[in-house]
Amino acid sequence: MREPQLASRLRLAVVRLNRRLRAQRTDQNVSLTQIAALSTLHKCGALSPGKLAAKEGVQPPSMTRVIAALEDMGYVERSPHPTDGRQSIVALTGSGTAFIEATISAREAWLDRKLAELSGDERDVLARAAEIIDRMAGNE
Q: Residues 75, 76, 77, 81: what is their CA dihedral angle, to the nearest 10 degrees?
């Protein structure tokens, strides 16, 4: 297969899978941008709004709005920065942790069901592909 064809097929497959996984949400009132911010806080721990914005690839004013909405939902809380009085630190609340863990669980349950429909050989191929994709994405 020519590389451009492989690149196109892989891109479309990843986009479609990502779309299906994102659809597995426990609360449709929480936007995908908000879920992404919660996921980053879950993975990285408490962060300043600027660092959270940088990790999410958005401008700080946009992240400020996301944080405000998540605060209103009770999913995050701000506290003073330990060394810089001009900044704050954003952390998940217990409700935020429970929400994001339920969202992750719903997505993984959907994926587990889909994987169970495959043969052992197909799952082996996907396990290897996951390693390669992760390496391509620079996560190893």
A: 170
